[in-house]
Amino acid sequence: MEAEPKLAELPGEVTHKEALALIDSSELAKLKELADRPALLHLAGHLAILTATGYTVLQSSGPEWVALSIVPGIALVFLFTPLHESIHGTAFRSAWLNWIVAGIAGVLLVLPPRYFRYFHLAHHRFTQDPVHDPELETPKPGTWLDYGWYLSGLPYWKGALVTLVNHALERKIGSYVPSPAVPKLVRPRLSRASP
């Protein structure tokens, strides 16, 4: 019997479907199982790191706070992971936990989950399409100086705040947001609906 090929042995670029085909169906089903407890433990660990590193920065005095702030900054940015998985409904088994975590992470990242869901699903649908992929609307850094500016995080926070203000003023809402959903973005209400 011939051995199954490994991912590294496949010629050329491998598609997502080809990579998944290499995983045994029972193993793949096991990997796709959703559970609340392990996800809550991961989230608790993440929040503990964010709290401890943030506390350390707040307790520091003098110029070292700038260097120390890098670690909680990284932990904060990594809240994008639970936001991302929650809007896909894959972080937790319980839909309400996905909704709450997406909401909290969205507030901390100034990235409303309903808006991000439309933005991100358009990205999935039109990945690398220069006309329709919303992630390609912002040009990538072209120089080392541009890249350093990008890594500072300042362009992210500026963009997040501008988007929030634009939505509040009902302007510049992406074409990927269906028109019936626009009122939910500009006048969001707390509800048990999904993010």
If you had to describe this structure to a student in words, what would you say it looks like?
The chain is mostly helical. It folds into two domains: 1-33, no CATH class; 34-186, no CATH class. It contains eleven helices and no strands. It has helices at residues 16-21, 25-31, 36-59, 64-68, 70-77, 80-88, 95-109, 113-125, 144-151, 154-168, 182-186. Helix 3 runs antiparallel to helix 5 (70-77), helix 6 (80-88) runs antiparallel to helix 7 and helix 6 (80-88) crosses helix 8. The model has no long low-confidence stretch (mean pLDDT 87).
List the defining traits of the structure above.
195 residues; single chain; mainly alpha; 2 domains; 59% helix
The helix content is: 55-70%
Number of strands: 0
Structural class: mainly alpha
Low-confidence stretches: none
Helix tally equals 11
Shape: globular
Largest sheet: none
Indicate the proportion of strand residues: under 5%
Helices and strands, in order, run as HHHHHHHHHHH
For the record, give the distance between the C-alpha atoms at the N and C termini, rounded to a whole number: 49 Å
